[in-house]
Amino acid sequence: MKRIFEIDPWLVQSHQLNPNEKRLQESMTAIGNGYMGLRGNFEEGYSGDHLQGTYLGGVWFPDKTVVGWWKNGYPDYFGKAINAPSFIGMALTVNGERVDLATSTYRDFTLTLDLHQGLLTRSFVFEGKQATVRFTFKRFLSNVIKEAALVQLTAESLAGPAELTVAAQLDGNVTNEDSNYDERFWAPQGENAAAGTIQLQTKPNPFGVPQFTVLLKQSLRQGATLLPGTVTTSTGQLTSTVTLPLAPNVPVQLEKDVIVVTSRDVAPEAQAEAAAGLMTQLQGQSFAAQLAAHTALWAKRWAQSDVVIEGDDAAQQGIRFNLAQLFMTYYGDDKRLNVGPKGFTGEKYGGATYWDTEAYVVPMYVAATPPAVTRALLQYRHDQLPGAYHNAQQQGLKGALFPMVTFNGIECHNEWEITFEELHRNAAVAFAIYQYTAYTGDESYVNHDGMEVLVGISRFWADRVHFSKRAGKYMIHGVTGPNEYENNVNNNWYTNTMAAWCLEYTLARLPKADAAIQARLAVSGAEQQQWQDIIDCMYYPEDNKLGIFVQHDTFLDKDLRPASSIPADQRPINQHWSWDRILRSPFIKQADVLQGLYFLNDRFTREQKERNFDFYEPLTVHESSLSASIHAVLAAELGKQDKAVELYQRTARLDLDNYNNDTADGLHITSMTGGWLAIVQGFAGMRYDHDQLRFDPFLPKQWQGYQFRINYRGRVIQVAVGKTVALTLLAGPPLTVMVAGQPQHLEVSAHA
Amino acid sequence: MKRIFEIDPWLVQSHQLNPNEKRLQESMTAIGNGYMGLRGNFEEGYSGDHLQGTYLGGVWFPDKTVVGWWKNGYPDYFGKAINAPSFIGMALTVNGERVDLATSTYRDFTLTLDLHQGLLTRSFVFEGKQATVRFTFKRFLSNVIKEAALVQLTAESLAGPAELTVAAQLDGNVTNEDSNYDERFWAPQGENAAAGTIQLQTKPNPFGVPQFTVLLKQSLRQGATLLPGTVTTSTGQLTSTVTLPLAPNVPVQLEKDVIVVTSRDVAPEAQAEAAAGLMTQLQGQSFAAQLAAHTALWAKRWAQSDVVIEGDDAAQQGIRFNLAQLFMTYYGDDKRLNVGPKGFTGEKYGGATYWDTEAYVVPMYVAATPPAVTRALLQYRHDQLPGAYHNAQQQGLKGALFPMVTFNGIECHNEWEITFEELHRNAAVAFAIYQYTAYTGDESYVNHDGMEVLVGISRFWADRVHFSKRAGKYMIHGVTGPNEYENNVNNNWYTNTMAAWCLEYTLARLPKADAAIQARLAVSGAEQQQWQDIIDCMYYPEDNKLGIFVQHDTFLDKDLRPASSIPADQRPINQHWSWDRILRSPFIKQADVLQGLYFLNDRFTREQKERNFDFYEPLTVHESSLSASIHAVLAAELGKQDKAVELYQRTARLDLDNYNNDTADGLHITSMTGGWLAIVQGFAGMRYDHDQLRFDPFLPKQWQGYQFRINYRGRVIQVAVGKTVALTLLAGPPLTVMVAGQPQHLEVSAHA
């Protein structure tokens, strides 16, 4: 654990710049607007160790992948979101002296991410040889004009006059740290000094993946006055230099406006004109006015989704940081995009879509954002169905296999034990449809596009099982369960359970689907009978003596020992043990059997949940950022309040406290829902199966109270838990909610 | 199956050059001398599709390896034998017209590999615009001067005078086809026109693996006259050009002598002088005299090892081709080298050492070559013990883990399911010690260096097992057995069996070992007791109902179907099925349980062998070149003569008939012992456990007879099987041999 920012309910703020923690600081101060995002790199540049990172949603490259020996069915390429041209550059020179916080003398450093609106502010006093100047940068990526990045620089000489030179740059000469052989992914297409633009294209690839072309345009202004400056270009770069005299104690402001357009939206030849139009729109309003419009949209989000925690500012900061980062990554604006595990904050996981979306993001988004946002996540999968059919075909199987990692629906990760075997993601995609439908009551997806997804998934499972003559049961061999600390196991209980659930849900929903969809899908009676046979004869490993579901066929043969027996200096085991030792160990990375009890919560008795939780949780090392939240929800349900709170703390401030010592690479965006899940589904016990919203709240003893707001079927409901529990319907028609097992009728108060 | 060479008992000959089969032809006409080797590339160059390949024993490069996500314990690099500078180049121009069989007009093409002595001869009549010239190339790599390659060109104008230009070249500008990113592995260090040399060094690497420097020297002569020619150089290249007038019907000869020295033997600064000395030695004798000396050494080998088959020339050619290629790859001259799966014939498998050596090469070499040759293979492992300890430590385990793939003892393959899990190779290394000792009666290895190997291996197994409290047994989880069509299985019967055997053999041999070795190894009584406990309580999966040993824990849950149920157009399955489908299928790549019955042959009853053979062989697709031979031996033992012969045919002409459709990449050198094993251990039923040499021969009904010679404890024994069986002691002291269960006393005949 390393806490480098101060505790504050709404701010992520630091007054220190520790060169050893520059990358960590950059991750934590990343901002995004769903369209693009960037790490907390410094505008003026920084010559010390740092990770330059700017990412454009959906702009990626299919990198060559190398495995030991190629085998049929392996993906052709490894997709990665590439580091995009950097557009924040504003190199500063004071009386000829370059400002560089890695080498310059400075004081009064303050760095602040304001969670209200995703505004990053940084100020410091530069103590040059001949001048002392206070610099303040503010930047945000507009939620109103998604293509726009705005940077405001304020410079004030604190002693004597000074001459400030600002070299504002667009820089396409960027690389990825994770490139295999120091490849460059961008080919410059030209610079236009008069227009202030550079254009670049991703390099060709042999896989038929379209190349992306981006155009970046910058413009400097002071108030309403544009400052063209002296423009120079080199290949892939453009620099506008302006010189500003600084009189003592007179703040001078300079604003850098940037427009970024990509061929995802605008054809390359039309990009210059499109960018010019957007720039005109952007510069039609002042920085302050643009910020106000941007902040107004944020205010709406917070009004629907804020979580308030009384008596624990660290927890308060944690949950708001997570919500802000999630919303900066994805708010449903572009159905072609999804929620990358690191969002726009780092290179790892390549900015691609993982099962995280359905397993961890949807369960929060369905309640914390308007239904259209979650619906867009579902639509994304439907729109990628051709890719999913392709993936199954690659394995010689029928139906649709949604990918473990993807940009376009086609699997682009290159480990067979993941790609071929971590099949349970295919169930999560189906379960998200169930969750959305059950929560919102909106059946329009499941009855149309969603049914195409469900049938594709069911056809996959029906072909992927095999019938064991010896056991007289259907089995699923060769899978990797959610516990990625084992590979290639047989009859993973979670996978078998969820596969059968998929068939069951599809069979149940199919007759209600749109007639035209039913006709097109043409699921014959024989096929339905086959699915029913699989449901009826699926093999589930269980141990009657222990009264548990068994993680997979031979799990109980392991050298079973609790995770507490691992010496502290060997934790996390993934940083200390060989992969062989981890695979053979009994230690579980994240909820596996328990993930099933979490998803299909209403199908198991409390005793079943208790026995399994008590058996598996002690074996669990929670080394996935996705682990603690699910366990917290179950612990809360089972009355293990202390355990629930302990696990909440692991998830809610995972990045703020750098709990897994890897946040320098980027934030764990998709696991940031964990704090919300732990509070809303855990502490407050929210459930919504069988068309009945229910709560069963408790108040962690460390807190004085907490409250949150959710959207539910056209309503906004506020739940406040303190010494008592108060539910308030803020908007929408009346509703009866179960609270601790008792019905409670809610109506909008006349006083509201 | 594709047969492109004619049937002949001693020649591999073709009168056709099919451009579509150039690579296949090149593989089949590769030659080597243990020190170096090369594919059947053409001296004059060939502009059509081909695979340029020259390989120097032990000269390799640690290539960067890329996997999806790095995990602790993964090897740092992927080792590969790199394509070495080409030294055969003799570009031909006739009256200004370039000779290139891809584009020129020619007739009377003949290509012949003479198996007596590894001599490659090629002739053709070039029909140029102005001249018709017959060219004949002969080349061999000397067994007398290992650094020497000799090429003899004969040119004869068949019509009218012609001017022939020969540009003899050394070419260091070579690449590997299998490089990940088109890397070049060689850095030229300089050319010396006067000396006729080029020197190159392998590129630096970040892994601490030493770089290799090689120097190549060429010299042209006509009879005793040296022809310096006109020498030109460019970076990494040197060319000597001579012009020869050709009078009609007067053959003209030109010889190219090459010396290749490497920093494995000679420091870079001393290489020029060393090469000059070797060139003087080489050119001290004519081409014919050098060839005669070389051939004399081959004659000795054949006198000890030839196998004669009467009535089946195809089979005869197959076994001689295999023996010749094996001996060209390895004859024990350099203890630092081993037998790469493709020898010097292709890039695949990187020229590294695999378990093939102990499992397939040693069982033949121990009888077919002098004991020192096999002993050198054992010594190789002992000399790499530090690497084996390193490999175990990488996995967090005690003892020594011999690598799956290596040049220097350190694992250099990059698939965890192989590297971490295919542990049975560690038993094969131990078993080779047993085989050598049991066959030769020479205990000097097992009592000294060999015991260090055995104890290292046993300490590994003792740490790698775990005790399953539930079963009350020791288990080995997470392995890949010899059947590489499954990965990461638990309690592979073969692995468990061989692991326990290692402990047992080590315990049995330990008290007899050299006292100093025992003292140094310090195996305590407690440790021995622990090993005994593992032996006593090892878990072996068995099925009593079927009466078989079970391949691994859940094998019988598979959808068991015979391999004959696979449609013909889907064979081999590794070229038609996805890896996922293969892994989950019941189909077996090569002997797994049966490999154990083969190795520990004397420990199992005939009924056990029969039940297991009858269960597993029908599931086996024999898609490893190593499979058929083991099955042939067992089938012969079980009286399944037709099956044995069928399997023999698959192994004996695997490459000559391109049975697996992959010989274009190179020959399957290590599996070339299979034909010999099938004949000697299979048809002739040779066994040698318990210090008793035994035979139990039968004659395949397709043959009129077969005979072979073996070395046995200082003797040469000839076994001739026709309508009767005749054993002849050709050299050495008298011996009693069991033949078909009856003792037969052998003495060297006075008439001999």
Automatic annotation (TrEMBL), chains A, B:
InterPro entries assigned: 6-hairpin_glycosidase_sf (IPR008928), 6hp_glycosidase-like_sf (IPR012341), Gal_mutarotase_sf_dom (IPR011013), GH65_N (IPR037018), Glyco_hydro_65_C (IPR005194), Glyco_hydro_65_M (IPR005195), Glyco_hydro_65_N (IPR005196), Malt_Pase/Glycosyl_Hdrlase (IPR017045)
Pfam families reported in the protein's UniProt record: Glyco_hydro_65C (PF03633), Glyco_hydro_65m (PF03632), Glyco_hydro_65N (PF03636)
Domain of life of the native organism: Bacteria
Start and end residues of each Glycoside hydrolase family 65 C-terminal domain: 686-745
GO molecular function, one term: glycosyltransferase activity
Domain named Glycoside hydrolase family 65 N-terminal: residues: 14-264
Active site, per annotation: E484
Residues binding substrate: W355, D356, K589, Q590
Coiled coil: none
Domain Glycoside hydrolase family 65 central catalytic: 320-676
Alphabetical UniProt keywords: Hydrolase
Homology family: Belongs to the glycosyl hydrolase 65 family.
Official protein name in the record: Glycoside hydrolase family 65 protein
Lineage summary: Bacteria, Bacillati, Bacillota, Bacilli, Lactobacillales
